[in-house]
Amino acid sequence: MENKITKPNEIFVSEEEKILNWSEVQSAFEKNFGTEVYSSWLKNITLLKEYNDYLILGVPTRFFRDWIVSRYLDKILEQIKKFKLSLNRVEFKVLDENFSKTSDKNKIDDLNKVTEIKDSILNYNRLNPNFSFDNFVEGSSNEIALSSSRKVCEQISRYNPLYVYGGVGLGKTHLLNAIGLELQKKTNVMFISAERFMYHFIKSIKKNDMVNFKDFFRESSVFIIDDIQFIRGKEGLQEEFFHTFNSLIEKSSQIIISADRSPVKLDRVQERIKSRLSGGLIVDIDAPDLELKKKIIKKRLEDMQNQFKENCSLEEDVVNFIAAESKTNIRELIGILNRVVTFSRIHKKALSISDCKNILKDVFNQAKIITVDKIQNTVSNFFNISLNEMLSQRRSRPLARPRQIAMYLAKQLTTRSLPEIGRRFANRDHTTVIHAVKTIKRLSEKDDEMKRNISHIRGLILEE
Ligand code: ADP
Ligand code: MG
Fold first, then answer.
1. 189 with 220: CB under 8 angstroms?
2. Crossing angle of helices 430-446 and 448-463, rounded to 10°
């Protein structure tokens, strides 16, 4: 029975995809989260199903799920990714409520239901309940984006489309998600990243099922699309998006879009699309100032306090320190805060600034020193080629290998995602990065010279 459940034989698992060895992942959890967290929480997670880019994990109760999702999700993903590069997200299934009262047969049925819907587009239309307006903290850098988002919720198609742009980790997805949660109460909402949109687009073409695709996306009353910059340079996708956009506007559906840049700066996007995107209201989210960072820290501490029913507060000077030291990315700020709070809870002590400095040494050092640029420069110097050559489209081995090595090291030494790394390499696709990482990993396992070179370059990058 177990086998039947965990063995992935779905189309989502590509041929070469390895089946994840869950006990290996568990060991990594134990090593990285520490025995205490591991044995009280993570040990109880089971692997139910594996797909190409996501996993369904079983957890005993709903409370359990909420707890680990709120506290450990990022790190869980990060750990599993080490074993499964293609992982994008995990989904938790509460075993207790679904199964305890039902027979074994029902268990299987229940899991099969998951399988059936896994392939439907609906499955990607999940809004994250944690990204709501309630926990979006307002500051001068985001107040206009926030108030416009609220207004869209009050009155649909007042601003159409609403276009929100800003740098990485500044709250775009959070805000779009909050709009989705709010509007979902009264109408049907489609929430999808541009990357997912393309995935379904291509799959529908392959399956000769464009009619369904078109109907599906043109049906929604509210269409939210995240990270639209992804369509740059993709002509077919732009064509489809343009038509989807037009038919939605025609029936007065609300469209909300996010991007990492303003519409005019979307190079390699058709002019007619840019002009559509600019036809409503454009708002930006800026980097947070010190005050907003402090407010976010305090809000998170308060939430944790309520959640854990124990003291999670930090001294004012420690809050100031974290806010000042963290870079402008709110995602990183929250990661740092989580580390500090975890440490303080485990050791049951109030932290001083110097404790924080110690805990965060790695984070700050890493964040400060290792950038993709730096890796690219070091690698191209090492191989005595110019940076331009390394990033060029030429495929000769003396250029391609260093390029792949640089991608591999970027994946290993920075926290950048695969698509982000691809973009830094003259806008290559993330699948190219995956290929490079796999190739170099394989070569460095069997080729001594490669192994030596990699370790030498890594040394150069880290010591500077
Ligand atoms: P983006 O999509 O712009 O890269 P996200 O929306 O994913 O950024 O935000 C990154 C993290 O920072 C998320 O955990 C989000 O909840 C948090 N965050 C961003 N802005 C705020 C804010 N103003 N208040 C509270 N949390 C925020
Ligand atoms: Mg985002």
1. yes
2. 120
| Protein residues within 5 Å, CB atom, of ion ligand 2 | 172-173
The pLDDT tens digits of the residues spanning 378-420 come to 999 999 899 999 999 999 999 999 999 999 999 988 888 899 9
**pLDDT at residue 358 tops 90:** no
Helix H or strand E encompassing 112: helix 104-118
C-alpha span between 241 and 237 (Å, rounded) = 6
Q: pLDDT of 46-70, one tens digit each? A: 998 888 778 889 888 777 787 787 7
The b-or-e profile of 35-74 (16+ CB within 10 A means b, else e) is: eebbeebbeebbbbbbbebbbbbbbbeeebbbbbbebbee
What is the edge-to-edge ordering of all strands in the sheet holding 222-226? 189-193, 222-226, 254-259, 162-166, 281-285
Q: How many whole angstroms from 352 Cα to the centroid of ligand 2?
A: 33
CB atoms within 10 A of CB 246: 12
442 Cα: distance to centroid of ligand 1 (angstroms): 36
Burial of 421 (0-12, 13-18, 19+ CB in 10 A): buried
Tell how far the Cα of 307 is from the centroid of ligand 2, in angstroms: 25
Q: Name the closest-CA residue to atom 19, ligand 1.
A: 171
What is the identity of the amino acid at 180? G
Three-class DSSP category at 137: coil
Average pLDDT across the chain, whole number:
84
User: Whose structure tokens read 């198609």?
Assistant: 157
